[in-house]
Structures are given as structure tokens and as C-alpha cells.
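FORM 7B: Structural annotation worksheet

SECTION A. Query
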Amino acid sequence: MQSQISKPLLVYDNDCDFCRYWIARWRHITKDRIDYASYQQVAAKFPEIPLLAFQSSVQLILENGEVFSGAEAVLRALNNRLLLWCYYNLPGFAPLSEAVYRFVAKHRPFFSKMTRWIWKKQLD
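SECTION B. Predicted structure
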């Protein structure tokens, strides 16, 4: 990994309303433990990560250069110990998590509308 970072970096698609919404929520959860940047801003700094990878799922880049994507990246970024344990130890959990992630990613406009509708209902 050419680019040096001082803490984990979660890279997302800034052209995606769904992505921007969830990144804003996750910032409150992760506080200053993780940096966030759009792939449109930082992809050139990480030429070893294919542009298609940035376009298809979030990428969590660790200080040591290790990269995680999709559901695994989200769970690691949020540091949810129970879900991480399930992801690594419960048979079928990781593939199912990644399948759900890919399904949502392919239907982001729909899930963006659903997310905003659900959260609006919860606030009413």
C-alpha cells in the first residue's frame, strides 16, 4: 500500500445518496476512531485497489495496508463484536452477509428511499 494513513479509512461512493446517509450515521457511532472519504477523492492514492472495487462496495483500509470490503468492512468499521464473531465463526453468516450487502448495493436508489421513509416514521 503506497499511501500511509494514521487510522482506518472507510472509503465510500459519494455519488450515492444511500451511502452518504449511512456514512453520516456511522460517523456518530465511530466518532474519531475512523476517517471517512469518498472514493472520488482518494481512489488515486490507492492504485492497488481497482476502481471497480471502490464503485461496488465500501473499502476499509487499515493502517497496515490491509483492505476489507462490503459487509466485512462495515462490521469491522462499526466494531460490532457480536456480529464480527458471527461473521467469522457462524457457518453461512459471512456469505449471507455479503449476499445481502451486494443485493442492497445493486438496489441503492430503492433502499435509499426505504431508509429515509423508515427513519422518518421512527422520528414521527
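SECTION C. Observations
The beta strands are 9-12, 35-38, 59-61, 67-69. The first helix runs from residue 17 to 30.

SECTION D. Sign-off
Analyst initials: ____
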